[in-house]
């Protein structure tokens, strides 16, 4: 199924806080971003369909939004750094602030073209 993904993702590591309450009690890092969501690398995953409050910790004002957990992969703590995708994929529901800055973070240098053909 991953081969049929239409949305391009940008690999970027950003510190973040997340949690089910208003204040993000858990800390983690992003692994890749897209305009619709992101992958959070964490050992503290939430169950699919859980709504989270996420805050990206940038130098400027943080970007905060609500997101839904679409899938999660639990990995034992001792294997956390060995497994490639240990964490959860989330889809953004609504932004509280910083939507434009988030979209700028997601911009790709070479946007993919249909069919994977580069035009010269």
Automatic annotation (TrEMBL):
InterPro entries noted in UniProt: PilZ_domain
Gene3D superfamilies according to UniProt: predicted glycosyltransferase like domains
Molecular functions (GO terms): cyclic-di-GMP binding
Lineage: superkingdom: Bacteria
Domain PilZ: 17-79
Any Pfam family the entry gives: PilZ
Name recorded for this polypeptide: PilZ domain-containing protein
